[in-house]
Design brief:
Mean pLDDT: 96
Helix content: 40-55%
Largest sheet: 3 strands, parallel
Strand content: 15-25%
Order of helices and strands: HEHHEEHEHHEH
Distance between the termini: 37 Å
Shape: globular
Strand order of the largest sheet: 3-4-5
């Protein structure tokens, strides 16, 4: 189904660390590699922010995701499932510096977030 969708013009795949019991990224990586399609897809995983307990976890998780996806770069990288509390925790751990670093290193082209909170919190983010 994914191959047919790509053949019909699909160019964007959104996945995340916990999807399908943690197997989504591995499946997508294997699929894209087996079909030599990585360069035809905008690949977008999400950092599982709830697993970040200290600054080194940013790189630890990103490296696992790059390995799972069998790629050396991501087109988009989203901070997953932010609410205001989690956002503040990420800021305190240095998430902006991390995002700047991975963009400068060419590991990620664009960054963003997915959001799960009230509109007033969205405005603060």
């Amino acid at each position: 189904m994914i191959l047919e969708a790509i053949n019909q013009g699909l160019t964007y795949i959104d996945t995340a660390y916990p999807y399908h019991d943690g197997m989504s990224e591995k499946f997508i990586g294997e699929f894209l590699e087996a079909n030599n399609l990585r360069d035809k897809i905008y690949l977008t995983p999400k950092l599982p922010c709830w697993l970040v307990k200290e600054k080194k976890d940013f790189y630890k998780l990103l490296n696992v995701q790059l390995e799972n996806l069998r790629t050396d770069h991501l087109d988009f990288y989203l901070l997953h499932s932010l609410d205001i509390k989690r956002f503040n925790e990420m800021v305190d751990l240095g998430v902006f510096e991390f995002l700047d670093e991975i963009k400068e290193k060419g590991l990620v082209k664009n960054v963003g977030f997915s959001f799960h909170d009230e509109y007033s919190s969205f405005e603060k983010l």
